[in-house]
Amino acid sequence: MTQPSILILYYSRGGRTAALARQAARGVESAGGIAHLRTVPPVAPTTMTATPPVPEDGAPYVEIADLVAADALLLGSPTRFGNMAAPLKHFLDSTSELWLKGTLVDKPAGVFTSTSSPHGGQESTLLSMQLPLLHHGMVVVGIPYTEASLFETRTGGSPYGATHLATPWNTALSKDENDVARALGARVTRLARALATART
Questions:
Q1: Contact 72, 35 (CB under 8 A)
Q2: How far is CA 181 from CA 18, 59, 106, 138, 164, in A?
Q3: In this structure, which topology does domain 5-199 adopt according to CATH?
Q4: Residue 39: enclosing H or E segment and its boundaries?
Q5: Category of 157 on φ-ψ map: left (φ > 0), alpha (ψ -120 to 50) or beta
Q6: What is the pLDDT at residue 47?
């Protein structure tokens, strides 16, 4: 495999999770992968899914075929009471067909999130996103402490995944948050290549 195809799937309301996704994409590309940014539509309380038009700019909406085609997955969501946001969970709940076929088994996956407070559920949100990935048999990838930014960050960053602290005094991703998101993208890409090679 020369260029692993990495699906970066996220939901973002205020733009911070989308910013993490873009930095993860830079990490993917730095490791020789091809990044495919995708998002999910919002859900509405009175229907299963809201039906807004596909955005004119930004990432297109994800399709199941995107998961099938990807060699690896990066999954991102803002926190909602310490959990992933409903639109992302709604999409993941629709992937039972892939689970039955074992389509995602042995593909690497990493996660990222954004919160508006330092203890707003970053780690529990990351862990909540990892659970369906484990059920799919994916290889969950974190960020090792050999990444210097994990020691230096005063904002976001976790061994469980990339994070951003979205506060009035941290209105854009910090250098450390950028570095951690890129490191996650690069690591997932390297592992995607190594696992694909091992399977051949």
A1: no
A2: 11, 18, 22, 20, 9
A3: Rossmann fold (3.40.50)
A4: strand 34-39
A5: left
A6: 62
Please report which confidence band the pLDDT of residue 1 belongs to, taking 50, 70 and 90 as the band edges.
Answer: low
Instruction: Provide the sign of the torsion angle of the four alpha carbons 161, 166, 171, 174, taken in this order.
Output: negative
pLDDT in tens, 16-29: 999 999 999 999 99
Angle (CA) 125 71 194, round 5°: 100
* Domain map (residue ranges) of the chain: 5-199
Token readout for 25 is 């994409």
Measured CA to CA in angstroms, residue 100 lies from 62, 105, 138, 162, 190 at distances of 20, 11, 14, 29, 27
Full-model pTM: 0.94
Pairing mode of beta strands 5-10, 34-39: parallel
Q: Considering the chain, what is the average pLDDT of its residues?
A: 92
Determine the pLDDT at residue 45.
Answer: 74
Tens-digit pLDDT profile for residues 120-145: 899 999 999 999 999 999 999 999 99
In the block, which residue shows the tokens 């689970």?
Answer: 99
DSSP 78-124: EEETTEE-HHHHHHHTT-HHHHHHTTTTT-EEEEEEEESSTTSSHHH
